[in-house]
């Protein structure tokens, strides 16, 4: 249980928080630290970000928030998410996200900041934030879907399939679940075969020409989550979710 790091030329960072990879506050920071360690290793040429279990990521652990008095868990989760998403984006080598099952909330934050995405046939992507009394990761969803669809997904909390994202070109390949890790490694190894100095500079240059500062825009979104909590709407929505389980 936790985040597993397997250092190599193609380094694997694996999310593992059973049963549904709803990541606790400390887990987001653990994930950020693993990604930073992977990128800091001079032998790492590419990172594959994957997950064990039923789905890639169910987002933050809302039950942890509701059983923790005050706003300590909420604040820790929000800061941890920002750190983990930034660690994907700032990783000095390309990050390949290997997504299976559900990719929700924080999972979209990770995937949207990845350099490329390979998905299993059963993968679905969505932001249930509005139903949870929160906002955030529209920044990252906007890197996966067109603007009006992004807005529709935020307002309605509907999901999209890996096949839809493949048609948009934001998922590179859709494969049977049993082949997901192998497919992600195959494209990672293709990149890893290139000159590592050139690839690292390519990653830096591509981040430098991005039209949106994903770290600043995500923190802007999070400010509205804090506002919703101050007026009580956030806590009510989270409690409805917990009681509905």
Notes on the structure:
This protein is α/β, with parallel strands linked by helices. The protein has a single domain (2-175, 202-243), classed as 2-enoyl-CoA Hydratase, Chain A, domain 1 (Alpha-Beta Complex). Helices cover 51% and strands 18% of the residues. It has helices at residues 25-40, 62-67, 72-90, 106-113, 138-141, 147-156, 162-168, 180-192, 196-208, 214-230, 233-243; strands spanning 2-6, 10-16, 22-23, 46-51, 59-60, 95-99, 102-104, 116-120, 124-126, 160-161, 173-175. The strands form 3 sheets. The chain has a 6-stranded mixed beta sheet, with helices on both faces. It has a 3-stranded mixed beta sheet with strand order 7-9-10. The protein has a two-stranded parallel ribbon with strand order 3-5. Strand 1 and strand 2 form a beta hairpin. Helix 1 (25-40) packs parallel to helix 3 (72-90), helix 3 runs parallel beside helix 4 and helix 3 runs antiparallel to helix 10. The mean pLDDT is 96.
Task: Provide a compact summary of the structure.
By secondary structure, this protein is of the alpha/beta class. It has one domain: Alpha-Beta Complex (2-enoyl-CoA Hydratase, Chain A, domain 1). The chain contains eleven helices and eleven strands.
Sheet with the most strands: spatial strand order: 1-2-4-6-8-11
The CATH architecture classification is Alpha-Beta Complex
At the first level of CATH, the class is Alpha Beta
Gyration radius, rounded: 17 Å
The CATH superfamily is identified as 2-enoyl-CoA Hydratase, Chain A, domain 1
Mean pLDDT score: 96
Q: What general outline do the C-alpha atoms trace? A: globular
Q: Give the termini distance in whole angstroms.
A: 22 Å
The quaternary organization reads as single chain
Order of helices and strands: EEEHEEHHEEHEEHHEHEHHHH
User: Sheet with the most strands?
Assistant: 6 strands, mixed
CATH topology type: 2-enoyl-CoA Hydratase, Chain A, domain 1
Please give the share of residues in helix.
40-55%
**Helix-strand category:** alpha/beta
């Amino acid at each position: 249980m936790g985040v597993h790091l397997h250092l190599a030329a193609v380094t694997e960072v694996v999310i593992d928080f059973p049963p549904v990879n709803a990541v606790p506050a400390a887990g987001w920071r653990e994930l950020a630290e693993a990604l930073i360690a992977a990128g800091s290793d001079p032998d790492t040429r590419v990172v594959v970000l994957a997950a064990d279990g039923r789905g890639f990521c169910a987002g933050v652990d809302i039950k942890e928030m509701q059983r923790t008095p005050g706003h300590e868990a909420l604040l820790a989760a929000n800061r941890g998410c920002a750190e983990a998403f930034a660690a994907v984006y700032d990783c000095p080598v390309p990050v390949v996200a290997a997504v299976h099952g559900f990719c929700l909330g924080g999972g979209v934050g990770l995937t949207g900041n990845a350099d490329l995405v390979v998905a299993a046939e059963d993968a679905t992507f969505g932001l249930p934030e509005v139903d949870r009394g929160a906002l955030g990761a529209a920044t990252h969803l906007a890197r996966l879907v067109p603007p009006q669809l992004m807005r529709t997904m935020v307002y309605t909390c509907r999901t999209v399939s890996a096949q839809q994202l493949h048609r948009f070109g934001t998922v590179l390949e859709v494969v049977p679940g049993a082949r997901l890790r192998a497919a992600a490694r195959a494209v990672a190894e293709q990149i890893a075969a290139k000159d590592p100095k050139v690839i690292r500079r390519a990653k830096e240059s591509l981040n430098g020409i991005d039209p949106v500062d994903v770290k600043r825009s995500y923190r802007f979104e999070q400010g509205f989550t804090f506002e919703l909590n101050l007026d009580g709407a956030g806590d009510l929505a989270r409690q409805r979710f917990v009681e509905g389980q």
